[in-house]
Amino acid sequence: MAERFEIVEKALVKMLEDKKYSALREVLTTMNPSDIAALFAGLEEARIPLLFRLLPKELAAETFVEMEPDAQELLIQGFSDNELKEVLDELYVDDAADLVEEMPANVVKRILHQADPEMRQSINQILRYPENSAGSMMTTEYVSLRPDMTVEESILRIRRQGIDKETIYTCYVTQDRTLLGIVTVKDLLLAEDDETPVGEMMLTNVISVSTLTDQEEVAQMFSKYNFLALPVVDGENRMVGIVTFDDAMDVMEDEFTEDIEIMGGMTPSEKTYLKSSVLDLFLHRIPWLLLLMVSATFTGMIITSFEGALAAQVALTAFIPMLMDTGGNSGSQSSVTIIRALSLGELRFSDIGKVLWREIRTAVACGAVLSAVCFAKILLVDRWLMGNPGVTILVDAVVCLTLFVTVVIAKVVGCTLPLVAKKLGFDPAVMASPFITTIVDALSLLVYFLFSQLLLGV
Amino acid sequence: MAERFEIVEKALVKMLEDKKYSALREVLTTMNPSDIAALFAGLEEARIPLLFRLLPKELAAETFVEMEPDAQELLIQGFSDNELKEVLDELYVDDAADLVEEMPANVVKRILHQADPEMRQSINQILRYPENSAGSMMTTEYVSLRPDMTVEESILRIRRQGIDKETIYTCYVTQDRTLLGIVTVKDLLLAEDDETPVGEMMLTNVISVSTLTDQEEVAQMFSKYNFLALPVVDGENRMVGIVTFDDAMDVMEDEFTEDIEIMGGMTPSEKTYLKSSVLDLFLHRIPWLLLLMVSATFTGMIITSFEGALAAQVALTAFIPMLMDTGGNSGSQSSVTIIRALSLGELRFSDIGKVLWREIRTAVACGAVLSAVCFAKILLVDRWLMGNPGVTILVDAVVCLTLFVTVVIAKVVGCTLPLVAKKLGFDPAVMASPFITTIVDALSLLVYFLFSQLLLGV
């Protein structure tokens, strides 16, 4: 699919270069706004305004919403007041609010100046809510009905008001702005009697979120309940807006990217990879690398204090990387599983007993198999094949016992830390592999040297 | 929220124990199917059929769809033929097909026997498509219109047929089953003239998927284009079904989970954590652990061949864990970033040059800072504070040079492997941290010993 898009992209750029504007306009009108926006992303800056002006008004606005902030800013800088007003008139309020959040102050001033008073007020309302809250992602444009309206009156109202609403398919029945229930267009269209008041047919067990609900929780509710839209109410249960499923999907993707970045030992970034500067990449990566490097001092100190043992049995050193890596991998398997189950809402802190019992049994099974295979491998490869005389049966035993204990420790640490982090109100993803690796490394080395002392007497 | 649900759960179980059935029924009818299904998941097996029979017919079917397969099987085993037929009649075809896929053969036979002929045919059609294809996740129930129908006729058709359709909001204009365009209920309701034929107002640049399109690609199209539903066509562009956004959201979540599991060094599992047996967990984790443990043999071999150097300069051993961990962390930062950008469609293989140039500059910056801090830290902590005479300035230099080179190698390997995997048609997630750690370990040890030989002459 990506390849097909590249071919289209090249053809269109060629048309632009050859000034075949009317043909280009024809092609663009058959394209989807997201695809046109992707096209803009690959274009030279100078050509962006030219191509944009070829788009019909409505398509232009829809494309504008899908574009990257830097291209949006470039366009607005070049717009006449009239052009800006035309684009703004076509935007939904939540998209306009997103735009205002992204733009620098001088552009924001122009936008708010050109927006009509109603939109200006709505934008300001949405911007008052904290970032990442339901209030900041909602739109204030929805269809509201009164409970005494009949099915026929309701449909009439939708037909009159629908044009400006992001979704008309779920309508909200309110009285004095208090949310009483919801009615879908499907219910209205399929109603047997046009005279039924919507108050009698509405669904009253409405699930709503507060303006301050975290966006991650909002996204989870969408995926759990399969809603098209979710009403947002204020502290007094008065309806202030709706969140639509497309914004919830975007949040789901963003939150997942954030989780992955944190689990990979980075501070999360809002920019896409190719839009991030090298400085951005550096700044998001260096803090964790520094922290983890300095914390590896402990493993160094452990090794230093057992230098005598290592000097006496040099063969022991060769197995340190294998022990550390296997411990790290075992731990991250558990932590990754638990972190994901937590973010899907499958686990609570109170499940910690169940989780530990499962992980310990799994660890014993994994540890036993790994140790057995490792024992045989060391005997075959290191002792016989490579003929290393330092690798005695006893050394082999020390390595495999350590391996077993390390796997168990790693899995216990790996499953416990994310649950504890969640309980303490931290993001469990922080407790993913890099962090756990460091802890497991230190513990596995300690175990290694203890067994060496016990069995080898070094 | 989880806590609130636990309280409701306890209250309802108490009501069930006290046989307050009519009150319980009252409460259940105000609840959402997903929440009732979650309630069933926590219930003793013997009580499941009892509680299920308290639900009104339609709510029962909606709840049934949301339940876990084992509870579904339990219920079907206990259903009379009549009860089974009633539940099946309320299911949408795609949900019924999912059910058939999950159940054992004897249950499937009963389901197909009780389904009406039309549904049986649709189920069989859906089941013929490969797992994880658009065909297997679609429903065959959608509203189709002819291009010559007027707006008024179309609305009438929706009102007559809509009751059985999963979504009515997007209607498909077809001729001889070939997809010509789409019309939304919003378009129809807001149309100015009731006599306009839908063929004149339909959107013709319809994006569709083939029955064989992979479900991950389908989900990505939903998040890119914000569709409510996506038409599925066969090889001759004849419309065979639609995929709805709720199924796409589920796929998106499942694919995230799969990515995370693979990146954590596990084979992906379809079961939730608490539903997986210890054997499941073991079997999903042990293959990678074994593979990675055995591949760590190389690091062991490298250390063994430099045993002499280590014996001469015991202080060198203490820094092995720090070098390996920092290398592993640097590499996984890059690989995780690239894997995510690939699965979001932000990168293509042809960007490899751009990616390498960015990663190398970032690596040089990270490596320089890490080496400088490490140099100072070793001097301060290891040499002066801990008074380790073996840690000479030259040893410090070897460690920090190795660190710098390791970080650069790790980032280059970390960004290259996922891109190459993608190009070769593998899942890039496989190239995440565990794999890259193993490679980077071996390379960093080689560099370490090379620098030792050069600078320390050991």
Overview of this structure, please?
2 copies of one chain form a homodimer. Chain A has 23 helices and 6 strands. In chain A, 66% of the residues lie in helices and 6% in strands. Chain A is mainly alpha-helical. In chain A, helix 15 (215-225) crosses helix 16 (245-263). The first copy, chain A, has a 3-stranded mixed β-sheet with strand order 1-2-3. In chain A, strands 4-5-6 form a 3-stranded mixed β-sheet. The mean pLDDT of chain A is 86. In chain A, helix 12 links the parallel strand 1 (144-145) and strand 2. The interface between A and B is large, with 120 and 119 residues.
Q: If helices are DSSP runs of H or I spanning 4 or more residues, what is the number of helices of chain A?
A: 23
Class by alpha and beta content of chain A: mainly alpha
Q: What fraction, in percent, of the residue positions of chain A are helical?
A: 55-70%
- Global morphology of chain A: elongated
Strand order across the biggest sheet of chain A? 1-2-3
Measured by residues with Cβ under 8 Å of the partner chain's Cβ, the largest interface is: A-B, 120 and 119 residues
Topology as H/E string of chain A? HHHHHHHHHHHEHEEHHEHEEHHHHHHHH
Oligomer class: homodimer
Low-confidence stretches of chain A: none
Radius of gyration of chain A: 30 Å
Q: Hey, roughly how much beta strand do the residues of chain A contain?
A: 5-15%
Question: Main beta sheet of chain A, described?
Answer: 3 strands, mixed
Strand elements of chain A, count: 6
Mean pLDDT value of chain A: 86
